[in-house]
Amino acid sequence: MNDEQKYIKIVGATTNNLKYVSVKIPKNKITIFTGVSGSGKSSLVFETIAQEAGRQLNETYSKFVQNFLPNYTRPDVEAIENLALSIIIDQKRIGGNSRSTLGTIIDIQPLLRVLFSRVASPCAGPAFYYSFNEQHGMCKTCQGIGKIITLDLDKALDQNKSLNEGAILLSGYGVGTYLWKTYATSGFFDLGKH
User: Fold this and answer.
1) Which residue from 27, 64, 79, 119 lies 20 to 30 Å from 145 (Cα-Cα)?
2) Does the predicted TM-score (pTM) go above 0.70?
3) Longest alpha-carbon distance in the chain
4) The domain 3-81 belongs to what CATH superfamily?
5) What per-residue string of b and e applies to 122-155 under the rule 16 or more CB within 10 Å gives b?
6) How far apart are CA 149 and CA 5, in angstroms?
7) pLDDT tens profile 24-59
8) What stretch(es) of the chain map to CATH 3.40.50.300?
């Protein structure tokens, strides 16, 4: 690979706030884009580089398959050279599911499970034995989440107060709230008892 092929070269990018930006981004390195809000970081990364990578990837499929894929238009740029397949992880927060990982988001985890089931030594068994989401593959202590979650009763309850006085310290359980009423109206608790 010659020196020029070691870089993704962008010439004349004009997406959104970009004003004919030209830049060379090193390949096989972690590159961080920083700058003030509105300076064009997202425009360069997501709407120029990622969009062109997606467009080029889609062009490798037949027209029939392309009808089912996202439609990527050519970004506002004079030229992009030496662009390889890109995996884009969006800026948006991943959903609240604690079992979501980079491997599950980009769908590589099932492939890794198959690989480990075929070549691991010693072998744990079939592919699903290598999944932290399956009972056979998950850690018995953390249930496949990667950390142990327990309730700290001292932070959840003030045992010197009654329910009517605000014994439940958890957020959203203040006296009179909907969540508090689920306990208060259940008939299982004496609301004035400490």
Assistant:
1) 119
2) no
3) 79
4) P-loop containing nucleotide triphosphate hydrolases (3.40.50.300)
5) eeeeebebbbbeeeebbeeeebbeeeeeeeeeee
6) 48
7) 999 988 888 888 988 899 899 999 999 999 899 888
8) 3-81
